[in-house]
Amino acid sequence: MKHITFFITIIVSFIVCGNVFAGTEVVEAVNTGLDLAPIGAGLIMAMAAGLGTLAQSKAAAAALEGITRNPESKDKVQTPMIIALAFMESLVIFAFITALSL
Predict the structure, then answer these.
(1) What does the angle CA 95 – CA 4 – CA 30 come to, to the nearest 5 degrees?
(2) Helix, strand, coil proportions of the chain in percent (round to 5)?
(3) Residues 99 and 44: beta-carbon distance below 8 Å
(4) FRET pair for 80, CA 20 to 30 Å: which of 4, 19, 48, 64?
(5) 15-42 burial string, b = 16+ CB within 10 Å, else e?
(6) b/e string for 73-91 if b means 16 or more Cβ within 10 A?
(7) Environment class of residue 93 by beta-carbon count within 10 Å: exposed (0-12), middle (13-18) or buried (19+)?
(8) d(CA 37, CA 19)
(9) At 49, phi and psi to the nearest 5?
(10) Residue 21 pLDDT
(11) What is the pLDDT of residues 30-65, one digit of tens each?
């Protein structure tokens, strides 16, 4: 059920955001008078925040599980985990900047 919901969300976001990312000629031809940019920005932020949080929680859970199984590996696991979390968060920040630019 989760996969079906995920794919439906992706398809709806492509349909709604299609006018936002299309060229000006296409937008003028398809323009119905509705401004869909705020909806697209909201979808971008919702998906980025939700999926970014999911990825960060899975990464932290895996790192903590590895540390609890082998406490001596704390120094070897903690630094790469923090770097990975920073990269994940940067993707969410890029999505936020994209949403603000719309």
Answers:
(1) 60
(2) 90, 0, 10
(3) yes
(4) 48
(5) eebebbeeeeeeeeeeeeeeebeebbbe
(6) eeeebeeebeebbeebeee
(7) exposed
(8) 8
(9) -65, -45
(10) 59
(11) 556 677 778 888 888 888 888 888 989 999 999 999
Full-model pTM: 0.60
Domain 2-101 CATH assignment equals 1.20.20.10: yes
Residue whose tokens read 């900047």? 97
Closest CA to 38 of 56, 21, 20: 20
Name the residue with tokens 């299609």. 18
Residues in the chain: 102
Residue ranges of the domains in the chain? 2-101
